Amino acid sequence: MDSLLFGGVFVLPWWGYALVALALTHVTIVSVTIFLHRHQAHHALELHPLASHFFRLWLWLTTGMVTREWAAVHRKHHAKCDTADDPHSPQVYGINRVLWLGVFLYVKEARKPETLERYGHGTPNDWIERNLYSRFQVVGIVLTGAADVMLFGLLPGLLILLTQVLWIPFWAAGVINGVGHYWGYRNWPTPDWSTNIVPWGVLIGGEELHNNHHAFPTSAKLSCKWFEFDVGWMYIVILETLGLARVKHVAPTPHVAPLKPAVDPVTLQAVIAYRYDVLARYARALRLAWAGELRRLRARAPEDARKFARIEQWLARDEKTLREPERKALAEALPKSPVLQTMISMRRELAAVWGRSSATREQLVGRLQDWCRRAEASGIAPLRELAERMRSYA
Questions:
Q1: Which helix (H) or strand (E) holds 65?
Q2: Which residues pair with 46 in a beta bridge?
Q3: Could you tell me if 174 and 103 are in contact, meaning their C-beta atoms sit under 8 angstroms apart?
Q4: pTM confidence score
Q5: What angle (nearest 5°) sits at the alpha carbon of residue 99, between those of residues 98 and 101?
């Protein structure tokens, strides 16, 4: 009986089978993050045909996912993030549904012809994709299952196959799409609920740095802070060293030069490129200013201070992500603090500089110059410092 259940080519202790399963699923995670996500969905890097086809073959064997479907659903997620049209937002469907049943939301969206037509462009459409990978999705998994049983025996092989089959639906469709838009820390005040959920990088290939990704979706590198480790980026560097990949985009790093007397087109271009650095610093400036305002309210109006103490946690968020009670509380607090009212109003003006606009470059330069002038004359120290930093961008 034991020989029937465990009589594979390799007979291992239980922890040996566990390590094999983890190693195989790790290759799958790397294939998803490098090939499907960064290469296909966002064109953050180019891959040599040898590396590209290895990833395609591996994903067919272990997941059965179709490249066009995955890229289309993910691109729609970015385009409609955390709205009613988002294919898998926990803010819409609830965290439990996305965490445990997120794969079914993905399958439902992938079957919509309009989603594939609008968002599925630029993905592989060669002979092998049309006649094998997209046409016979289950065949690859069956072949993998047969290989697992042959190599490790019936019971270990089936358990390893089950782990391979469930790994991406749980970690990618569930944890990243669910927890990654529900709980965690945020480096950047993006107009959605994306979060970073370290330290699960080894298991998820760097995809846990989800807020960083939503801030810079075309960046091949997902880590931004010194303590963040992007496993996928490590493999990309190795592939690039071997001549099997070429990085096209990474998140911009702000460069600061001596303070300019006035805003010019280069300043405008830099502010737009570094807008998330601007917004992150603006959020810190808001919290610093509100701390001072709160001390003033405690001395003059203790009841107002207690009532509005909680709004500090909402100041760093994009206003689009505020719920109705939070919007109401913020609107009620603003008249109590002219400083906060000015800063919130000027943040909206600043965001309009890089928002969609029919204004010419000269007009935008003029608006930014006027914004900096008013910020420096406002008497609000954090606002003045932010304006001076923006005029120093190079």
A1: none
A2: 246
A3: yes
A4: 0.90
A5: 60
Instruction: Report the C-alpha gap between 43 and 39 in whole angstroms.
Output: 5
Q: What is the pLDDT of residue 136?
A: 95
Residue pLDDT, tens place only, 338-363: 888 888 898 988 888 888 677 888 99
Residue 299, burial from CB neighbour count under 10 angstroms (0-12, 13-18, 19+) = exposed
- pLDDT of residue 129 exceeding 50, the answer is yes
Are residues 37 and 125 part of one domain? yes
Helix or strand run (H / E) with residue 46? strand 45-47
Q: Which of 190, 220, 247 finishes a domain?
A: 247
DSSP string, 206-240: TTTBHHHHHHSTT-S----STT---HHHHHHHHHH
Does residue 163 register a pLDDT over 80?
yes
Range(s) of the domain holding residue 305: 265-390
Tell me if 208 sits within 8 A of 198, measured CB to CB: yes
Is the same domain home to 236 and 270? no
The yes-or-no verdict on residue 2 having pLDDT over 70 is no
Q: Which of 385, 366, 375, 359 is nearest to 264 (CA)?
A: 366
Cβ-contact 82, 181 below 8 angstroms: yes
- Do residues 32 and 177 both lie within one domain? yes
Residues 304 and 372 placed together within one structural domain of the fold: yes
Report how far apart, in Å, the C-alpha atoms of 94 and of each of 44, 200, 209, 315 are: 30, 22, 21, 24
Q: Is residue 260 situated within a structural domain? A: no
Helix or strand run (H / E) with residue 33: none
234 assigned to some structural domain: yes
Q: Is residue 254 part of a domain?
A: no
Are 91 and 158 within one domain? Answer: yes
367 and 353 Cβ atoms separated by less than 8 Å: yes
Q: Which tens digit of pLDDT belongs to each residue from 191-201? A: 999 999 987 77
| Residues in contact with 337: Cβ distance below 8 Å, sequence separation at least 6, in sequence order | 290, 293, 297
183: Cβ–Cβ under 8 A, 6 or more apart, which residues? 195, 197
Number of domains in the chain: 2
Same domain, 142 and 14: yes
Does 253 reside within a domain?
A: no
Phi, psi of 91 (to 5 degrees): -70, -20
Are 207 and 283 found together in one domain?
no
**Binning pLDDT at 50, 70 and 90, where does residue 298 land?**
confident
CB 383 within 8 A of CB 341: no
